[in-house]
Amino acid sequence: FGLGLSIVRQAVRVLEGTIELASSVDAGTTVRVILPLAKAA
């Protein structure tokens, strides 16, 4: 998936989120980035 996904993966790790990938033939790939909401101050 290249350098871009590697950079995103590192940022998501720092922000304690997750990345989900779903791929299917003739439909492409879906990349979902899930980040936690910040707690109210």
List the helices and strands and how they pair.
Layout: H1 2-14, E1 18-24, E2 28-34
Walk me through what this model shows.
The protein is of the alpha+beta class and 41 residues long. The protein is built from one helix and two strands, in the order αββ. It has one helix at 2-14, and strands at 18-24, 28-34. It is elongated and about 45 Å long. The chain starts with a helix and ends in a 7-residue tail after the last strand.
Summary?
By secondary structure, this protein is of the alpha+beta class. It is built from one helix and two strands, in the order αββ.
For this entry, give a set of tags.
32% helix; 41 residues; two-stranded antiparallel sheet; single chain; 2 strands
Q: Whole-Å distance between the termini?
A: 37 Å
Radius of gyration: 13 Å
How large is the share of residues in beta strands?
A: 25-35%
Shape: elongated
Taken in chain order, the helices and strands follow as HEE
Structural class: alpha+beta
Number of domains: 1
Largest sheet: 2 strands, antiparallel
SS element count, helices: 1
